[in-house]
Amino acid sequence: MNYKAASLWRSACALLLGFALMVLAVQTASARSVLELDVARQPVQMLDWGDAWMDESGSALVDFVASSDKIVWEPTHDHAIYPLTTGKALWIRFTIPPAPDAERWYLEIPYSAVNRVTLYTPDSIGKWLPQTAGDLIAVADWPVPHRHPLMPLVVSAEEPRKFLLRVENPHSFSAPLSFVSESYLSRHEQQTSLILGIYFGLAGLAVAVALLSAISLRDRAYAFYALSVALMAFSQAALTGIGGLHLWPHWRGWNDVSSMVFPVLTVGSLIWFFSEVVSITERSPRLHRMLVVLALSSLPVAALVGLIEPSLRFRIMVPYIVFTTTVAVVVVVWAARRGDRYGLWLLGGMAPVIIGACFPMARLLGLIPISFWTMHGMQVGIAIELPVLLVILMLRSQQRREHHRRMQGLDRIDPATGLINSYVFRERLARMMHRCERLKYQSAILMIDIVNSDQIRRDFGQRAADELPLLVAGRLLSSAREIDSVARLGDLRFGLLMEGPMNEEEAASAGPRVVARCLMPFKNKPIECVARVRIGLTVVPTERADADGVIQRLEALLAAVPPESKRAVFTLRS
User: Fold this and answer.
1) Helices and strands counted in the chain (H then E)
2) HEC secondary structure over 7-29
3) Whole-prediction pTM value?
4) Could you report the per-residue pLDDT of 92-151, keeping only the tens digit for each?
5) How far, in Å, CA of 455 to CA of 465, rounded?
6) Nearest CA to 389 among 194, 202, 198?
7) pLDDT top residue among 538 and 20
8) How far apart are CA 356 and CA 377, in angstroms?
9) Do residues 551 and 557 touch, judged by C-beta distance below 8 A?
């Protein structure tokens, strides 16, 4: 009996001990972090130290919020997303324990686009003193003009201090509240200024290079690129708070809408830029007109975003940006599938920006809290995109210039071989004859006909016959000197001007050398696949003859040769 009692006693003690441990674990799990302003560990996050309450009516006053026992407060926590909208207000209360007051401390709200934040601090008689910042207040009138709201805190080394924070915003709010000292803020801002300075410097350089290129090269794509980069830079200035701090510190209305107006205008300019880069104008004029209309529609959309009720702005901005970006991607893919050499590169340059833009879009829709990527994701994407697009434009300009040179040279250059044509050949022959007369020396002119093209076609096929003139052109160029001129005068006829001084014997020996050169086997061709040529040769100047006369006499000389003749070189006597 004693044994059974002892066993029951041990079991009861074990159950009680287990229950106690479970209660202790629950209490430990539910314990809230303690706020400690430590200069060695910054920024100091609020985490779950504060309490939050959503004022659905947005009309509660600070005295009521501070004293009412009917408000149901909930602990704040990291990564919290509060579903704010127009007409609502978020209240956060927190107490700062006794802290060293050797340095000045600030409440940092790293969200430059918040409409209004008000920090209430009690004075010595219990009256709540407000400090207000946000887009609805000119940045110059903030307690501390900064890229985002920064509220000075009055802390005490002897007693805790209570604070109330009121947040108004037309869409969700998720900025992590943190506490920073003045020394930390100074160091951190220097680092941030360096990063932002590099970005905006890169953007400014890209705009300057693009504008100069647009003027010097007369290429509209560079102008659209400059416009897009400038609007991107203004968008980032608005989103990061740089614009409100440095560009429009006294324009509270513009500071409120700029972060949504500039992205709309940027996307509109980008779709026009993409259309120009992949030459939609030449590929499909109708599609180009549709893209232009879509790009120009960014103007009324941006105006509407700036005029409507703030909580509805993102419902217009986000669909327009998503739709326009999708259209741009589809158009670039369509052009790439039809052979545009820069389409895939353009998609590669767009990818970082599209990925980076997803983060602020998701934050705007209340899907994710504010983080480094929501604030700087697009900057990273744009920093990658800018040099990629600039390289694409440079390669495109180089190709276009080469194309224009070829188009302009078609009246002087044979497009198949790159040799001068018959018109330029006559010009150079006339100038060579004038030099010969003035300087009293002789030069030679050779007219070369390919005579076995039909045989090559029968023996080796049409492709070999088509390649034969190109191969002969290469042989003539390799046998000519730098001062000589090689021309293509017809499908199977070439001309060679050999600048003197030379005598008739030296001129006569040029013909056999060219024949022998052409009879050599071609690389990667059968040994029997050679070029048989027939050459008409004469020396200039000739008495009472001009360039046209010399050419006509050589043509007549070659035309009179019987087809069955085995002779290769025929000399025209002056």
Assistant:
1) 17, 15
2) HHHHHHHHHHHHHHHHHHHHHHH
3) 0.67
4) 999 998 887 778 999 999 888 899 999 999 988 889 999 999 999 999 999 999 999 999
5) 9
6) 202
7) 538
8) 4
9) no
